[in-house]
Write a structure and sequence with these properties.
single chain, mainly beta, Pnp Oxidase, Chain A, 4 helices, about 15% helix, Flavin_Rdtase-like_dom, riboflavin reductase (NADPH) activity
Length: about 180
């Protein structure tokens, strides 16, 4: 008699990651993920001809303090994927509560998202947006492929920040941070 617990069969990882074989409904999964509030960023880079590119992103996270590393991810069918894959640098611009219109602007396809936007070229010519709560200028270190996204790993080479209120995103809408003042309801 064997008292060892039975182990489930090890899934074939290629099939496990294929969307057609997953029992999870993608729309419902996205709704569940929306329960996790995030900050809102605009990731920027420059094409080889110097043209600035940018997109709204909330899949930004810190990876390591020493060395300083961050990551973000981009869907594989993005029209600007090639620009980000080939750029030596990218900038993560963390948006403030007053920058919701900018987040919406960069979330949509457009020939010139930077029209009327105050920015300056950063490392590798990646745009640094004015009035952001923080900016992280990163050297592209590596890319990893996961499902329908490419995960970009960047080494932070320069950063700035201020004490302005950040813009938040949860359950498909923008919001603000309300600090707990310690009083009971």
């Amino acid at each position: 008699m064997n008292d060892l617990p039975k182990q489930p069969a090890v899934p074939d990882s290629a099939n496990e990651l294929a969307s057609d074989s997953s029992p999870i409904d993608p729309r419902d999964f996205r709704n569940a993920l929306g329960s996790y509030a995030t900050g809102v960023t605009i990731i920027t880079a420059a094409a080889p001809d110097g043209k600035p590119y940018g997109l709204t992103c909330n899949s930004f996270a810190s990876v390591s303090l020493n060395p300083p590393l961050v990551l973000w991810s981009l869907v594989v069918y993005s029209s600007s994927l090639t620009v980000f894959q080939n750029a030596s640098h990218f900038t993560v611009n963390v948006l403030g509560a007053s920058q919701q219109a900018l987040a919406n602007k960069f979330a949509k396809s457009s020939d010139d998202k930077f029209a009327g936007v105050d920015w300056s070229p950063g490392l590798g010519s990646a745009p640094v947006l004015a009035e952001s709560v923080a900016s992280f200028q990163c050297r592209s270190v590596n890319r990893y492929y996961g499902g329908d996204h490419v995960i970009f790993l960047g080494a932070v080479e320069a950063y700035t920040y201020n004490t302005k209120e950040p813009l938040l995103f949860a359950r498909g809408t923008f919001g603000r941070f309300l600090a707990d003042d310690g009083r009971k309801p």
